[in-house]
Specification:
Helix content: 25-40%
Number of strands: 8
Strand content: 15-25%
Structural class: alpha+beta
Distance between the termini: 59 Å
Radius of gyration: 18 Å
Order of helices and strands: EEHHEHHEEEEE
Strand order of the largest sheet: 3-5-4
Length: 153
């Protein structure tokens, strides 16, 4: 039996009954998500500290832990985590989507030149008013991404 070590707080027996401990496993359980080695590996990458990662970046990091994991498993797991409210999908532009592990209300600063994405606490940017909405809909959320680029020298 192969033992897979996922950083310091989760150990599981590959191909056998999982023995899990720690905050990552607890967060998955609290969200009603059944524990699997693949989900634990994705959670270790996404949920230990606030991060903004694309699905491909998550795949690369999870493959450091579990080389055989598939792209489909990563996408399905990220969708499951998003549906459970553990991560938030953030469309930066039509060609770049990231998953944000900080699910509290906040905004983002995106540096176009470098691709760096930084959280802006909600208290530092105020959005006032809303567009006129049709009577049969209600506002669900406002996501603000400030796109900036370096000034020419």
């Amino acid at each position: 039996m192969k033992i897979v070590k996922i950083k310091d707080d989760t150990t599981a027996a590959a191909g056998g009954a999982a023995s899990v401990e720690g905050s990552v496993a607890a967060r998955l359980r609290a969200a009603g998500i059944a524990l699997t080695l693949q989900r634990l590996a994705v959670a270790q990458v996404m949920l230990v500290e606030p991060t903004h990662l694309s699905a491909d970046q998550v795949l690369a990091r999870v493959r450091d832990i579990m080389p055989e994991v598939s792209r489909a498993t990563i996408y399905n797991t990220l969708r499951l985590f998003a549906d459970a409210g553990l991560v938030k999908e953030l469309v930066i532009d039509p060609e770049r989507t990231v998953f944000d592990s900080n699910t509290s209300h906040h905004h983002h600063l995106y540096e176009v030149d470098t691709g760096k994405l930084t959280d802006i606490p909600s208290g530092e940017l105020h959005v006032s008013g809303t567009a006129g909405l049709p009577d049969d809909v209600e506002l669900e959320a406002v996501d603000v991404v400030l796109r900036v680029r370096r000034k020419p020298a």
